[in-house]
Design goal:
The protein is an alpha+beta fold and 165 residues long. The protein has 3 helices and 11 strands. It has a single domain, classed as Immunoglobulin-like, CATH 2.60.40. It has a 5-stranded antiparallel β-sheet with strand order 3-4-5-9-8. Strands 7-6-10-11 form a 4-stranded antiparallel β-sheet, with no helix packed on it. Strands 1-2 form a two-stranded antiparallel ribbon.
Length: 165
């Protein structure tokens, strides 16, 4: 009787842990992803925060960014830079998808294998991004940081993504 209860309990725990998995979708493809981390921008005229998550692919990965925007003419655009805990800079300019969903500008950048490997070892400390206004044809850049008391285990979580390829 005890073994049946333990097996049922294990099955329920396995199901609940598995159902919490995050994914990034591109069309009909899905890629296992990290949880979403929030990085904060300190200036008064900034969007306040930017959310990011990372997915693993066959050749590296994807970086998904989301920022709240009040109107659809504002979008994340241009080069994105990540500053890692060791001071290294990762610069991304190959945008895959750009979209507006639920008052957010969402964008997906490609991570090559080298950059993905760095993210598995070093935590992301800051992210530099730009918001482009399609009506005014102007760009404003921002730097966002993760709050230390929120914890910063980006490298650990990225390295835990299953190597399914």
């Amino acid at each position: 009787m005890k073994s049946i209860i333990l097996i049922l309990l294990f099955g329920l725990l396995t199901t609940s842990v598995h159902s919490q998995q995050n994914y990034i979708y591109i069309g009909s493809q899905q890629f296992e992803a990290t949880s979403t981390w929030v990085f904060y921008t300190p200036s008064a005229n900034s969007p306040g925060s930017i959310e990011l998550s990372v997915a693993k692919t066959k050749n590296g990965g994807y970086l998904m960014l989301e920022v709240g925007v009040p109107v659809e003419n504002l979008e994340i655009a241009g080069i994105v830079s990540m500053i890692l805990q060791n001071g290294k800079l990762i610069t991304l300019n190959q945008k895959v998808v750009n979209d507006h969903v639920d008052s957010k500008s969402k964008v997906l950048y490609t991570l090559n294998a080298t950059n993905y490997s760095l993210l598995k070892v070093y935590n992301i400390k800051k992210i530099r991004f730009s918001i482009y206004d399609t009506w005014m044809r102007s760009t404003e850049s921002f730097t966002a940081s993760i709050r230390e008391y929120d914890g910063n285990e980006t490298a650990e979580e990225i390295s835990e993504l299953e190597d399914i390829y």
